[in-house]
From TrEMBL:
Domain of life according to the entry: Archaea
This protein's name: DUF373 family protein
Keywords recorded for this protein, A-Z: Membrane, Transmembrane, Transmembrane helix
A Pfam match: DUF373
Species of provenance: Candidatus Halobonum tyrrellensis G22
Signal peptide region: none
């Protein structure tokens, strides 16, 4: 007897259709193939089952085959290969026990790949093999899947931009170099600029900064229509910070030009901070007042919010005093004395403590905020 034996090592047939295995007989195997195709048309084991039915019909029609032919589908289990092989062996034993024949049984194993063929030694230990057939689908699935995947990727606007924009920039390097050479611009400059732009774009996309930029733009747009004061105060604060940094570097440059022995690092930091901290303090007060104004307009005002500008002033006074104490003794610069440093530290501390106490008392005794309404 010839036994056509389709093998499903990971038991897709049983798991997806709920059928009991092994499945013995042509009609039963065909029905199982239809059930699996209905449950999962993309499963390759569907082709294995139909190939087994086809092989069974061919053997019956072959006049040179003068022995009985039977077909039975056996399955393993999902997971461990060892357990799957043992399950297949047990089902082969069950199939052989169910066959009522006095002839010697030989098997033709049908699989869909090398993984299922790992069970061949287990089957060979129970029944001689006349052959092994591997089912290969004609449609060249890998190439076709690649084509449709690329087509789907290029049809998506977001993915299309991610892939095609860097590719387009790379392809433009050579023609841009030619155009640059016409204007006596070195090709290395063009290559450097294009590489920098491509690198920035790649980092921008890779870090997901487009979401942050979109969210920031949305907040700015909402703030413009909602009349938020912080949009103006933040812009003014940024301008003040820039001015402070520039003034700090100018003062540092002037100090280095008149210092005969040069400036130690701590003295250089002191010059920069002593000059820039005044502008930074004004920037901090401006931005905090804008935030407090917006909170008041949105009916979320709390008296403790007024601590922010006073805290900024307190920190600025402390930094101004400490940096002034460490200023170098050079023409045009007068370091603060120890008594003035102590006065600045005391003033900063008192300013922070008194503002905290004042607005804590005000919040407990005066109406303010939504809960007062």
């Amino acid at each position: 007897m010839l036994l056509v034996l389709p093998v499903d090592l990971d038991d897709d047939l049983g798991r997806k259709t709920g059928l009991d295995t092994p499945v013995i007989g042509r009609d039963a195997v065909e029905a199982a193939a239809v059930a699996l195709a209905t449950a999962d048309p993309e499963d390759s084991d569907v082709n294995v089952l139909f190939q087994a039915v086809h092989a069974y019909d061919d053997l019956l029609a072959d006049e040179s085959v003068d022995e009985e032919v039977e077909v039975a589908a056996v399955t393993g289990v999902e997971g461990s290969d060892v357990q799957a092989n043992r399950a297949v062996g047990a089902e082969v034993d069950e199939v052989l026990a169910a066959l009522t024949t006095g002839e010697d049984v030989r098997a033709i194993v049908i699989t869909d790949g090398a993984q299922d063929e790992s069970v061949l030694p287990v089957i060979r230990s129970r029944v001689p093999l006349d052959g092994v057939r591997r089912v290969v689908v004609r449609q060249a699935q890998d190439l076709e899947s690649m084509y449709y995947t690329m087509k789907q990727v290029l049809s998506d606007p977001e993915t299309r931009g991610t892939i095609l924009i860097p590719l387009g920039v790379l392809l433009l390097i050579y023609p841009l170099s030619i155009v640059a050479s016409r204007f006596d611009i070195p090709g290395a400059v063009v290559l450097g600029v294009v590489s920098a732009l491509l690198g920035l774009y790649t980092l921008f996309r890779g870090l997901g900064l487009e979401e942050t930029v979109d969210a920031t733009a949305e907040r700015v747009r909402t703030g413009l229509y909602a009349g938020r004061v912080t949009l103006v105060t933040y812009l003014v604060a940024l301008a003040l910070l820039v001015v402070g940094v520039v003034q700090g570097f100018d003062a540092l440059g002037s100090a280095r030009s008149v210092a005969d022995a040069g400036l130690p690092p701590q003295r250089a930091v002191a010059v920069f901070v002593h000059t820039a901290v005044q502008w930074a303090a004004v920037a901090g007060v401006t931005s905090s007042l804008g935030q407090v104004t917006d909170e008041y307009l949105a009916d979320r005002f709390r008296w403790r919010y007024l601590n922010a500008p006073f805290y900024v002033l307190a920190i600025a006074v402390v930094l101004y005093g400490v940096s002034g104490y460490f200023l170098p003794s050079i023409p045009g610069t007068t370091p603060l004395t120890l008594s003035r440093l102590a006065l600045a530290l005391a003033a900063g501390t008192l300013l922070g403590v008194l503002s905290t106490l004042t607005f804590a008392v005000a919040e407990s005794r005066l109406p303010g905020g939504p809960e007062a309404a």
